[in-house]
């Protein structure tokens, strides 16, 4: 068991290292002079030279990488050109809204999607199954921001139940915090629900065809218990896996949703950084998001052993 | 239940419709038989005979597309076909129970063994947790499973195949059902394990007076265990009666044919083959290393120190159970995998270490017929294209290769015009013939048959074995015949090599090995062969006739 | 071992008939027919946009900004004749005709869908074959793919576009890069499982060389799954283009793409929702059609994957 945890941890390290190299190379591989790109279109040659020496861009590539990694290791993410601020501080200040949005979305999605998927699989071929599957395809097909504006139009503008945009920190009171979180997290959860419901349905269906389900029937077990005692526990691993893989979708969705609802989180920061061509910030954000993604999936890998004794032993 | 002689199961005139597209309208038709208490009835037949469908219909576990359309199934006098789903559930596990072919997949991998046996008690009884546990432990004990306490808390993946089947039997018999249905329960097991499981079923059934409906394709198993025999062919019963009568004095031509097709355990005496040496291995070994930096490194010796000699015109059999390394040896010799050590001498060349580039010109010397007839031909290519692929690689023109392929098709007993057809249009036996034609097209000196007849029905098996014998004589082939089945080995091999855990434990002329086995393992294998006595008489008659 | 293949175990599947019979079988599936029909319609709309009563989609007209759907405007030609033009979907904040922009936008979306799918499949297939068959390259390729997959797709796309000059090629590249790893994994896993098949081993025994072995026995197995995967990539490509354009980092804003129209309509959404509504509907229906096509193809071509 401990060996398994260790192996998974160690397997994550090269992945993160490769991400770091990719992110580092990204800017260096751009056509043209990275210093000129960073300094912006209106920069003078002096400013460009300044940027170059400040970032160590005048040194050979391996040395640049060493400097960059060294800084990362000591927690120094560099300084934002656009916001004129330490990137670490910048990110810290934006975590709460994003974390709230992501957590609320996941909660909604998991609570809705898994029961929907299980029921669809159990009633395989029924009208209920077809509706769940049909709606989930629709959920995949409409961009997040269209869903967002649709919800705003119906629930905020027409019905007036929720504020149109904006975010209120938790410190400003739980009521207002939640009130403003409802629409954005509903918006973001649509794709996620579609994904998890489909996967849940597929895994439960597959498990229901296994020999041990037939064995349980041969024992005279009732269908409900076959579903919950035998099928669901076996289907758990693929379901949990897709919850983890979906985090990537969630992160992409956060960027868009925060723009639609004017939420001052990391997603908005990403868009602002891209529009301002603030490369050090972009690099730091991608690295951070990827790190979070890999770590969450690592945690999910570790939960497999809870569901599957074959991994535990 | 008061009348001890009233049958536990009566099937009368059962007919089950087959959904459209099948080769016949009904999966089974007009099936009638009965199982008395304390009796083992074997339903025996080849693929597609409807024997498993019959078993599943008794349990009420048929796939939804298969519908009983006529007849009745009575369990202790109660009609199953008209019973409500609730009533069926109450009967299943309590009055009738079933064990399946694949003990590997029939148990839920994420629940403990004890839990899965207890489940039956939770469903059908009001026993408290302590009583349930005590009952399960007693049952595990009765199944001769070691350390019942530990077994109770184990997960299926920690058990061997035989242990899992014992667990299945424990769960099936814990409530003393009147009827036990066993659907090929030993087919997936090694022969020594099979013997133990058959003994266990016998023992349990005698002690508890259970009626057993035993589905099998194997006449050896029938001879070993059956009180009465029901023979099925294409959904109908062709013959039934007491085991001694059906086996010893079959009436129906189909039964006669099936029984005659069962290879005898008594090998014919064959003169030693004196052809030129075709293949010789020395010190052949294959070692797999697993693990690495953070996992305990493990070495598995799949094969070690294997020395084999085969002459032209000789058939050498390698027998052994799963994990014995017999297939590893075959794949090393075919150079589908690279051996870790040793020599493989073909003629005067050692091919053990040749790189693929230098090996390719020598490939035509050794050809393989694989086990699975459903996967050994590319489903997307015509049979003709599969056969001529090799010769064309070696420079034959497609026209010449096709002409030769037509001859070979005739030789293996197929219509030459079938070359333009695709593999899915052929049966399993026909596909093995095609695979043989493909191998022969290369004009090999050595043919490796890797469990080549194991997936076939006995009647087809006999034909393919005869064909192998025939082509061997025509082409003076050296044949390396890999099998787990001693009966088949006895029939075809000149010499026999017995392998266990990667090593050769015994080798010698086939008749010698059977008559005077040296190694304890060889003796155990021969002992374990089901229905060992069965077919011996017939074999002697044949031998006498040919002498 | 000898269960009853005719009844209980699946028999070997017949090879997929290609060509006319396959097309006929596909179109009998109503989901496929509906999806394919709608896509055909969209392709026609894009191709015939100039003759479907449209104006120049990039023509700015300050006089008629932000008009609601159905607004009519009289256009005076140079020779003095006048025609009345009805803005079926209204105008945007620069006075451009939304109807014309939506119709022309179909071109961009379909172009992106097709080119992204084709490029991702081609690159992924190549890398997947190499990884699956050339042992020493397997590790490096797959580790690189792991790294790419660890970066959330849209973020990776954003990073790629932000590096290059904005434009169609940059957007296509940005969407292709994150899609490649999944294709590589798919192809590699097929190669690894197929090469264990006895018929491939039989071909090795027959002395078939590697390139021929690949072409004859391995590649055909990747066709059906790749077609299915390609469809889903196409759907995702249309969505990602819309997202990038919506965030203002996609195709240059004057180009009429559905994402651009919606991006332009963001600011005045409360008052003039039609600028998001109409392109949103077209986009949603198109992606839905592609997804339906993909589901149908998968059910027909690759029954094992059904439900994924």
Automatic annotation (TrEMBL), chain A:
Record-linked Gene3D superfamilies: MetI-like
Provide the membrane topology annotation: Multi-pass membrane protein
Which ranges carry the ABC transmembrane type-1 domain? Answer: 95-300
Where is the protein localized? Cell membrane
Q: Which Pfam families match?
A: BPD_transp_1, BPD_transp_1_N
Superkingdom, natural source = Bacteria
Q: Where are the transmembrane segments?
A: 9-27, 99-122, 134-157, 177-197, 235-262, 282-307
InterPro entries, sorted: BPD_transp_1_N, MetI-like, MetI-like_sf
Keywords of this entry = Cell membrane, Membrane, Transmembrane, Transmembrane helix, Transport
Q: Which terms under GO biological process does the entry name? A: transmembrane transport
Q: Which family is it part of?
A: Belongs to the binding-protein-dependent transport system permease family.
GO cellular component, alphabetical, reads:
plasma membrane
The name this protein carries in UniProt is Glutathione transport system permease protein GsiC
Automatic annotation (TrEMBL), chain B:
Q: Which PROSITE patterns does this entry report, sorted A to Z? A: ABC_TRANSPORTER_1 (PS00211), ABC_TRANSPORTER_2 (PS50893)
- Where in the cell is the protein located? Cell inner membrane
GO molecular function annotation: ATP binding; ATP hydrolysis activity
Ranges where the ABC transporter domain occurs: 9-259, 288-526
Q: Which family does it belong to?
A: Belongs to the ABC transporter superfamily.
Membrane topology for this entry?
A: Peripheral membrane protein
Q: Which Gene3D superfamilies match?
A: P-loop containing nucleotide triphosphate hydrolases
| Organism whose genome encodes this protein | Methylobacterium frigidaeris
The identity of this protein, by name, is Glutathione import ATP-binding protein GsiA
**Major location category of this protein:** membrane
Keywords from the named record: ATP-binding, Cell membrane, Membrane, Nucleotide-binding, Transport
Gene Ontology cellular-component terms listed: plasma membrane
UniProtKB/TrEMBL annotation, chain C:
Listed name of the protein: ABC transmembrane type-1 domain-containing protein
GO terms in the biological process aspect are: transmembrane transport
* The keyword ATP-binding belongs to this UniProt entry's keyword annotation: no
PROSITE patterns from the entry?
ABC_TM1
Q: Which organism is it from?
A: Methylobacterium frigidaeris
Q: Which family does it belong to?
A: Belongs to the binding-protein-dependent transport system permease family.
Transport listed as a keyword: yes
- Sorted alphabetically, which keywords does the UniProt record give? Cell membrane, Membrane, Transmembrane, Transmembrane helix, Transport
Localization annotation: Cell membrane
- Gene Ontology CC: plasma membrane
Residue stretches spanning the membrane:
33-55, 110-134, 154-177, 223-249, 276-294
Q: Which residues form the ABC transmembrane type-1 domain?
A: 106-294
What membrane topology is annotated for this entry? Multi-pass membrane protein
Main subcellular location of this protein, as a coarse class: membrane
């Amino acid at each position: 068991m401990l060996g398994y945890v260790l192996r998974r941890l160690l397997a994550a390290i090269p992945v993160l290292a490769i991400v770091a190299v990719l992110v580092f190379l990204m800017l260096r591989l751009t056509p043209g002079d990275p210093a000129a790109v960073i300094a912006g279109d209106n920069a003078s040659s002096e400013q460009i030279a300044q940027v170059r020496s400040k970032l160590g861009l005048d040194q050979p590539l391996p040395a640049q990488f060493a400097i960059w990694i060294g800084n990362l290791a000591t927690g120094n993410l560099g300084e934002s050109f656009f916001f004129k601020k330490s990137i670490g501080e910048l990110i810290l200040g934006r975590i709460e809204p994003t974390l709230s949005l992501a957590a609320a979305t996941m909660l909604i999605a998991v609570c809705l999607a898994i029961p929907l998927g299980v029921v669809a699989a159990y009633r395989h071929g029924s009208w209920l199954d077809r509706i769940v599957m049909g709606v989930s395809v629709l959920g995949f097909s409409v961009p997040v921001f269209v869903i967002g504006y649709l919800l705003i139009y119906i629930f905020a503008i027409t019905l007036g139940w929720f504020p149109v945009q904006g975010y209120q920190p938790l410190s400003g009171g739980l009521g207002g915090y939640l009130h403003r979180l409802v629409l954005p997290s509903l918006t973001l959860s649509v794709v996620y629900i579609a994904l998890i419901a489909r996967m849940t349905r597929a895994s439960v269906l597959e498990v229901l065809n296994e020999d041990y389900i037939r064995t349980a029937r041969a024992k005279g077990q009732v269908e409900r218990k076959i579903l919950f005692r035998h099928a669901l526990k076996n289907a758990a691993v693929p379901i949990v896996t897709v919850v983890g893989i979906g985090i990537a979708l969630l992160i992409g969705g956060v960027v868009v949703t925060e723009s639609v609802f004017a939420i001052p989180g990391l997603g908005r920061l990403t868009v602002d950084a891209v529009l301002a061509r603030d490369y050090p910030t972009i690099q730091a954000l991608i690295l951070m998001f990827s790190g979070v993604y890999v770590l969450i999936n690592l945690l999910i890998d570790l939960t497999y052993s809870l569901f599957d004794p074959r991994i535990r032993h | 239940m008061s009348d001890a002689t009233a049958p536990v199961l009566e099937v009368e005139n059962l007919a089950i419709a087959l959904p459209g597209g099948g080769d016949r309208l009904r999966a089974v038709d007009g099936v009638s038989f009965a199982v008395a208490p304390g009796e083992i009835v074997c339903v025996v037949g080849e693929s597609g005979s409807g024997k498993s469908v019959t078993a599943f219909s008794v349990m009420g576990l048929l796939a939804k597309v298969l519908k009983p359309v006529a007849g009745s199934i009575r369990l202790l006098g109660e009609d199953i076909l008209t019973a409500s789903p609730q009533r069926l559930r109450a009967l299943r596990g309590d009055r009738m129970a079933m064990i399946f072919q694949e003990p590997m997949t029939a148990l839920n991998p994420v629940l403990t063994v004890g839990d899965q046996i207890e489940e039956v008690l939770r469903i059908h009884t009001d026993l408290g947790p302590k009583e349930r546990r005590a009952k399960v432990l007693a049952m595990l004990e009765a199944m001769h499973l070691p350390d019942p306490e530990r077994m109770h808390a184990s997960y299926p993946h920690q058990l061997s195949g035989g242990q899992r089947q014992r667990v299945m039997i424990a769960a099936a018999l814990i409530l003393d059902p009147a009827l036990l249905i066993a659907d090929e329960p030993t087919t997936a097991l090694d022969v020594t394990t099979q013997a133990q499981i058959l003994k266990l079923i016998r023992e349990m059934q005698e002690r508890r007076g259970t009626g057993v409906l035993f589905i099998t394709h194997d006449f050896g198993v029938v001879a070993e265990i059956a009180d009465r025999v029901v023979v099925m062919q294409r959904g109908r019963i062709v013959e039934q009666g007491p085991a001694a009568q059906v086996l010893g004095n079959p009436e129906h031509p189909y039964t006669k044919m099936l029984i005659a097709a069962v290879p005898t355990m008594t090998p014919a005496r064959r003169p030693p083959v004196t052809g030129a040496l075709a293949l010789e291995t020395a010190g052949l070994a294959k070692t797999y290393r697993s693990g690495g930096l953070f996992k305990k490194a493990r070495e598995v010796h799949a094969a070690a120190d294997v020395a084999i000699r085969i002459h032209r015109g000789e058939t050498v059999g390698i027998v052994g159970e799963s994990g014995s390394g017999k297939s590893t040896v075959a794949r090393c010799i075919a150079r589908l995998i690279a051996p870790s050590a040793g020599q493989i001498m073909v003629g005067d060349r050692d091919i053990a270490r040749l790189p693929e580039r230098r090996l390719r010109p020598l490939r035509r010397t050794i050809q393989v017929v694989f086990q699975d007839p459903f996967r050994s031909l590319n489903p997307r290519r015509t049979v003709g294209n599969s056969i001529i692929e090799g010769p064309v690689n070696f420079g034959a023109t497609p026209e010449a290769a096709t002409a030769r392929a037509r001859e070979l098709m005739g030789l293996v007993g197929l219509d030459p015009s079938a070359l333009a057809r695709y593999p899915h249009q052929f049966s399993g036996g026909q596909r093995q013939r095609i695979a043989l034609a493909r191998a022969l097209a290369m004009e090999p000196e050595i043919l490796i048959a890797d469990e080549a007849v194991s997936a076939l029905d006995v009647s087809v098996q006999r034909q393919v074995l005869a064909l192998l014998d025939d082509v061997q004589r025509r082409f003076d082939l050296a044949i390396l015949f890999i099998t787990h089945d001693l009966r088949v080995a006895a029939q075809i091999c000149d010499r026999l090599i017995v392998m266990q855990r990667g090593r050769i434990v015994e080798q010698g002329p086939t008749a010698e090995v059977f008559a005077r086995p040296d190694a304890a393992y060889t003796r155990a294998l021969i002992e374990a062969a089901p229905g060992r006595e069965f077919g011996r008489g017939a074999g002697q008659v044949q031998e006498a006739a040919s002498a | 071992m000898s269960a009853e293949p005719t009844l209980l175990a699946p028999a070997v599947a017949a090879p997929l008939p290609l060509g006319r019979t396959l097309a006929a079988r596909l179109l009998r599936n109503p989901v496929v027919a509906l999806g394919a029909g709608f896509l055909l319609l969209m392709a026609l709309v894009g191709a015939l946009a100039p003759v479907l009563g449209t104006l120049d989609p990039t023509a700015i007209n300050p006089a008629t900004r932000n008009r609601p759907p159905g607004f009519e405007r009289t256009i005076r030609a140079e020779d003095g004749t006048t025609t009345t033009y009805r803005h079926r979907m209204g105008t945007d904040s620069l006075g451009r005709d939304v109807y014309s922009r939506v119709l022309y936008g179909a071109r961009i979306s379909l172009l992106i869908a097709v080119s992204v799918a084709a490029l991702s499949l081609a690159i992924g297939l190549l890398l997947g074959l190499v990884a699956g068959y050339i042992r020493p390259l397997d590790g490096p390729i797959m580790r690189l793919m792991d790294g790419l997959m660890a970066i959330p797709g849209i973020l990776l796309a954003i990073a790629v576009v932000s590096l290059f000059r904005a434009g169609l090629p940059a957007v296509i590249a940005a969407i292709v890069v994150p899609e490649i790893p999944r294709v590589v994994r798919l192809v590699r896993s097929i190669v690894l499982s197929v090469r264990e098949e006895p018929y491939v081993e039989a071909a090795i025994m027959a002395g078939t060389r590697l390139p021929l072995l690949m072409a004859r026995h391995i590649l055909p197995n990747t066709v059906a799954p790749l077609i299915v995967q390609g469809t889903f990539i196409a759907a995702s490509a249309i969505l990602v283009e819309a997202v990038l354009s919506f965030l203002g980092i996609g195709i240059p804003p004057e180009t009429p793409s559905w994402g651009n129209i919606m991006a332009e309509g963001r600011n005045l959404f409360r008052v003039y929702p039609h600028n998001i509504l109409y392109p949103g509907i077209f986009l949603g229906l198109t992606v839905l059609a592609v997804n339906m096509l993909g589901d149908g193809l998968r059910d027909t071509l690759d029954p094992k994957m059904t439900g994924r």
